[in-house]
Amino acid sequence: MKEKRDNVNNSRATTWEEVTPREINPAVFLAAFHGGPYGLRSFAEGAGGRGGGRNRTVTAAELADGALLQALRAENDGEQRGIFFVVNPGGHKDAEITGVAAQFVEADDLPLETQWDKLMAFPLAPSIVVRTRKSLHGYWLLVDADDPGRSRIAPTNQMTSRNVPLSSAGNANSGHLINAPTNQNQIPVLDGDAPDHSVAEAASLARFTALQKQLAAHFDGDPVIANPSRVMRLPGFNHHKAEPVAVCCLLFEPQRRYTQRDLAAALCSLHPADPRFGVGVATGQKAGHKGRAAVALSLPRGDFDLELLLNNCDFIRHCQQQAATLPEPLWYPMITNLADVPGGEAAIHRLSAPHPGYSVAATAAKIEQFRRSGTGAFTCETISAWGFNCPKLGSCPARHPRDLGRVPPPPWYRQTRTGLRLIPGVLANALAAHKKIFYSRQCYYQYLGGVYKKVEELHIKHIIRKYLRTDDVGMYQINDILGQWTMEILRSPENLNANKALINLKNGLYDRGTGTLTPHDPQLLSTIQLPVRYDPQATAPIFAAFLNDCLDPASQLLVQELCGYLLVPETRAQKAFVLVGEGGAGKSTLLAVIQELLLGAANVSNIAWQNLGETFLTAELDGRLANIFADLPSRSISDSSLFKSITGEDWLTAQRKNKDPYSFKTTARLVFSCNSIPKNLGDRSEAFYRRLVIIPFGPPKPPAQRDLHLKDKLSQEAPGILNWALAGLTRLSRNGYRFCSSAASETALESYRVAGSSVRSFVADCCLVAAGRQVSATQLYHAYQQYSGASGLRPVSQKRFWMELKESYGMVEKKKDALSRRIIYDGIDLEELADFG
C-alpha cells in the first residue's frame, strides 16, 4: 500500500498496492452514517494510557467546533486513549439504539492485503473502508440509515432516505445513490414494528445481529462485533496499543447505499449450501393478503421529508451535482432552504464537503448567520435572479425549493375543505396486504424470525396507531380499523401447520421426505418453530450415554420414537406417556431435553394430569406440540373424560379469559413424570389403558456419581439429539404410528391396571385364568368381596364385576351349568378357596 496521504478516491483501486490513505474530516465521516447526535467513546490503551472509558454525545455543530476535536486529540495522543464512535444512532447502550446506520465487519486475524482482497471481491462494494493497526473495517451504509427499526420516535434532526430506489443487477456494486430520482411506483417503507419485507425497506434492528454474524463468518471476522451499540475506531486519530499508527480511511463512498435485503441475498448467493446463510430475506405476497391491489403502506412522516426535496428540486439537485464548484451566491440560498428542516444541517455539510474551500467551522458559521438574520428561505424567483435558471420556474407549484419536501398525506387520509379525513377501510386493506399478520382461533399471529408468533391485541392496535396522525386519533378509529383488518386476515385453523412433512427449525424448513433444508417461507402459515438448528452431521454421544444409564435398549427405542412423535403436530397414535421412576433417575433431565432443546417452551403447556379440565387451562393446549408436567401430584385421577378426548383426537371446548368459548382439536401430546402413577378411580375401561404408555426408569445413580453439568453439556448436543429424534420419527411413521414394544413398558402398564382395579387385583392374587377351569359366579363374587374387605378396597357391584372381568380377560365366559342350572364363569377358577371358606 502506498504511504501517501491525499484525497485520491480508492473506489477503483483493485489491488492493495494501489490503495492510498484518504484524509476525511471526522465530522464528514460521521455524517455519512446518520445526522447525529453521535456517540463517542475513548478508552485507555498502551503503556501510557490511563483512566476508564469516557462517553460523549455530540451534535454535528459541536463536531464542527475545533475545540472538541482538539480535546479529543489531546486524549488520543496526550493520554494514549483510543477514540471510537458508536456506529448506530441513539445512544451508548443496546437498549438506546434507535436504528441501523450500517452493517460492518472487522477481521484482524488476516493479513491486511487479504482483508482488502476479500472486501473487494464481495458482490456489494463497501461504502467505507477504514484501516487500523492490523485490521480493515468494512462498512456497508444502509438506505434509511436513520429510520428507527422499532417503535421509537426518530430524533427530529435525523436524515431519512425513504424514496431511494432499490438497486438492481445493473447497479448492485455501486449501491443506492442518494441523489437518484424518485421511483413513483415503489411501495414506501413499512416502518416501526417487526421486520416486514416491502419493496423498499427500512434497516431493521431485528436483522442487524444476524447479518453481523453472517458477515463475520464470510470474512473470517470477529463474531463478537454483533451488538447494536458496537463502537469502532474513528479515523483521524492514532491507535496506541503499541507504537502510534494512524487510523485512516482507505475508501469513502457514502453515496453507496444498500438494504439489508441486498446484503442477505449476496451472502446467501455466496454460501448456498451453508445453513448459516441459507435463510435469506423472504419475499412474496404477505400472509394476510388475498390478492387484491392495495395502496402502499408507509408511516405518517410529519410535514417534511428531506429526501423528497433532495430528489425532486432541480435547484437542490444542481447543488449536489455541482458541489465542487458551486459559487457562494447559490451556496447560501441552498443553506437557507435546508438549515431549518429535519436533517438539513447534516445535509448542508454533506453537500458542501466536495468544495475545495469547505471547512466544518465556516459552514457551521454560515448556517448560524442565516438563523440569526431572521430572514426566511430564498424563493425560487430570488434564486433565479442570483444565477440559477430553473427550467420549471412558473410551472412548479413550489414558491421555495423547500416546499418540494412537503409530505403528502398517506392514501388513507382524504383532503376535505375542513382538513384531512381518515378512511379506515383503506388503511385496513393496506395493512392486510403488507403486514405478515393473520387472525385465527381468537388470536393474532405475526411473522417473526421465520414463524408466526402469537401477539397481543394491544400490539396490533399499536401498529395501527403508528399509521395515524397522532394529533387526531381516537380509540374508536383504531377499533374500526382493527375490526376491518381482522375480517381481511381471518384464517381457518385447518390452514395452520397444514404441511406435516415440513418441520420448522431455527435455520430453515426441514423436509421429512427429502431430508433437505429450505428457507423459511411466510406463505406457509407455520405457528410452530423448534428452537434447534439442523445439522445433518451432528451427533449426541453424551445424550446416548445418559440414556444407557436410565433405560434398557428396548425402552430407549420407545423414547426415541416418543421424541420424534412430538416434533410434528401429529396425533394419530392416540397415546399419552408417563415416565416413572425414583427421584434422580433421569426423568426430569429427559423432559428438559424434550421441552427446552427439542420443542421450546413456546410450544409446550405445563398442566398437571389432574387439572386438565379446569376453566381457562384447556385453552393452553391449543396450538401446542406437547403438554409436559414433571412430578405429578399423588392425588387420584377422578375424571378421565378429557384425557380420552385429548388423546382421541376429539374436539375440545375451551375459553380464554374475557373471550367467548370456542372449539379446537389439540395437537398437544400428554407427557408426564412421577415417582408412582396416580391412581385412576374414575375409569377402568380398556379405552383408558390402551391410550397409556408407561416408561419405567432404572434406579438412580448415587449422588456422588451424578454430573451436575449434564444439562449444559446436553444443550451443546441439541442438533445431534434432533437427528436422533428424526430417526425415531421416521421409524414410527413407517410403522403406521404404532410404537415399538418394550417388555418393561408393557409390564409397568399391566401393573398399573392391576393396581387401579380391585377386580384385576383380585384375579391376579386369587384366581387362575385358564381353559377348562370353572367356578360358580356367586362363589367367585363372594370371594372377591371378602378379598376387597381384607385389602381395604371398595368392591364394585356384581354387574360391574362381570363387566370388568370380561373386558380384562376375554377368554372368560358366563354360562349356565347344565346340571345345577347355576350361573358359572368358564375359563377362571379360585386358587385357594380355603382362605375364604
UniProtKB/TrEMBL annotation:
Span of domain SF3 helicase: 554-710
Compositional bias segments (type: Polar residues): 160-187
SMART domains: D5_N
Record-linked InterPro entries: Helicase_put_C_phage/plasmid, Helicase_SF3_DNA-vir, NrS-1_pol-like_helicase, ORF904-like_C, P-loop_NTPase, Phage/plasmid_primase_P4_C
Record bears the keyword Hydrolase: yes
Flavoprotein among keywords: no
Domain of life: Bacteria
Ranges for region Disordered: 160-194
Keywords for this protein: ATP-binding, Hydrolase, Nucleotide-binding
Coiled coil: none
PROSITE patterns in alphabetical order: SF3_HELICASE_1
NCBIfam families on file: primase_Cterm
Protein name, as recorded: SF3 helicase domain-containing protein
Species for this entry: Acetobacterium wieringae
